[in-house]
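ligand=pyridoxal-5'-phosphate
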Amino acid sequence: MIGVTLALLLGRLVGTLLYGVKIGLEKALPGSMRHGLAKKAVILCSQHSHYACTTVAGWLGIGQDNVIRVPSLRDNSIDVAAFESAAREQLATGHAIAAIVATLGTTDAFGIDDLAALHAVRERLAQEFKLPYRPHLHADAVIGWAWSVFRNYSFAANSLGFRGRTVRALAAAVSRIRHLPLADSLGIDFHKTGFAPYISSLFLLKDRADFGAIVRERETMPYLYHTGEYHPGMFTLETSRSGSGVMAALANLLLLGQEGFRTLIGHSVEMAEVLRELIISRPELTILNDQNYGPVTLFRAYPAGVDTFRVKQREESDPSYAGELARHNELNRRVFQRVAAEALSGRGVAIGFTDNYRTSSSGEPICALKSYVLSPFADEQQMHAVVEHVLAACRAVESEVGS
Ligand SMILES: Cc1ncc(COP(=O)(O)O)c(C=O)c1O
């Protein structure tokens, strides 16, 4: 997929980020593994990057408070200008940058950071501050990696026959995903968009020599690694490990191939686009992540009479609207609970929910209903069913409130 020198297959959660940041920490503050941190180090990532960044900072001794979360833009990608000033501030204060984490496919909204722009800023700042290291750039692409299969797809010829909206969505995502080779390390989860069972992750490192930063001393491992050439156990956290996640991932890659993955990912995006078309045709519903083009759709339902053309903007930034926002949050929460209860009893559709898609200027969270289509068996009828169930639940909740 990309020109990498070494790969590490992991069967553990949060693993890819942990390795990326650990290697970056050792590059920024050599000797940390042995002596601990000589000075303060930070992780820079976006407001919408996964909470695993905070977990990893805590576990590596960087400290959870030293995760600098930079604001995101409307398309849920990191604000590169804000990132540059945050990085500049940290370097000017003398802090080390353990890692810059670019998220390519945020968990909730499928926001894709501009990796090429982050890379350019990193290069510029390393030179300007005359750093003895290059701050490690880790791409958390555990969700978005799969879109790489479209790198050489001719959207003009569109041999797989996707609809126009789907082609546009796929091409938009690929325009950013194609920069993955710029990252120093990269996380892939086959258990997410690789259709493999939990858990099977891949950590890719661009420069093999970077693994030297975390390799264990030979004398500490007298009982192992005497024959053969590939010994990930010499630099991974664990000694024993399961091969099953790895084999499942490999089986899927071999079975599906590039065309199979294109078909599956394309279908997910196509179903999301069908759903989006249905949602925008209903005045009671509105899409929140309308600038993201993946399989996930975040949307909200509103009581009859609410002007859904203006409501998003008012909820986000009009302090006098905070009471309405809280009521709409409550409506959506109850809609979700109804739809989820129906689904659990086998009668409905499975949707998700997020407690805090964004925070309004008055500090109130903005929650959202969530449709995450990944099943190859999802069809248009089911997308219609999502809208029907949500609208029915909305009417039911409204009548409960009114009675
Ligand atoms: C963008 C992103 N990064 C990291 C993680 C953590 O990965 P894992 O679930 O493998 O621990 C997730 C999981 O949802 C994620 O969505």
